[in-house]
Amino acid sequence: MGIQDTPEEWQVTATVTPFTGNKTSVRTDQVVMPDGSVHGRDYQVHPGSVAVLAIDDEDRVLVLRQYRHPVRHRLWEIPAGLLDIPGENPLHAAQRELYEEAHVKAEDWRVLTDVYTTPGGCDEAVRIFLARDLSEAEGERYAVAEEEADMEQARVPLDELVRSVIAGDLHNNCLVVGVLALTAVRAGDGLDSLRPAEAPWPARPFEA
């Protein structure tokens, strides 16, 4: 199998949750280290997310521009959102996000890659999908609010996004990982090597 991440869990002697928010919480675990010492580790507990790299027949990627308060930036991103229900099928969540944020549907779905966004301080896992054969969704547009109320939408050539990532002009992790992963798979084994849309996801198990 070659190089591969492996599951492992060190002993935890105590756990507290000093903060619980609307979607996430903060947990402090007392973790036994390899030398037998015990140290506290604080991290954000996250339900998990999905993201969609949607690319049209002109090789343009659907991107959204949204204000992100923690980093004080308006970032270009790909459609993404939380897994709203424990055990939710990530494909269904991704299809929902593409509809809600862009009013677009796709006929061809593949798993592009799976990532832990910030494993040193958060347990968030993200599944990034590749969506192709795009078309306008039927019905009325989803009503948006808060940061999404003034969200911009564009379609940008994949090559232009790659250049902007390398230049340091784009910073959203799902966009960066998604466009580079797609470029790599095209240059390597091809799109047929990608996993099916409902491939198992050990980080967030679900029923297909």
TrEMBL record:
InterPro entries in the cross-refs: NUDIX_hydrolase-like_dom_sf, NUDIX_hydrolase_dom
Highest taxon, organism lineage: Bacteria
Ranges where the Nudix hydrolase domain occurs: 44-178
UniProt GO MF annotations: hydrolase activity
The keyword Chloroplast is assigned to this record: no
Keywords: Hydrolase
Membrane-traversing stretches: none
One Pfam family cited in the UniProt record for this chain: NUDIX
Name assigned to this protein: NUDIX hydrolase
Source species: Streptomyces durocortorensis
